[in-house]
Amino acid sequence: MSQSACPNQETDDCKCTYAGCPRHGRCCECLAYHLAQKELPGCCFSAEVEKTYDRSFAKFIEVCG
Known about the structure:
- The protein is mainly alpha-helical and 65 residues long.
- It is built from three helices and no strands.
- The N and C termini lie far apart (30 Å).
């Protein structure tokens, strides 16, 4: 998928708390990046869990399973 094909190129509703994130508010870029790292983006977690920066699939299963 090209960047121009992303319907959420910029959003003000980004849940990420990592201040230095270059993909902040760019959902498609964020999702592609985290999946390539074998993890999920912060928006898949509650605010409390997202702040731990543990975005592993194991953490997702632990808190949502």
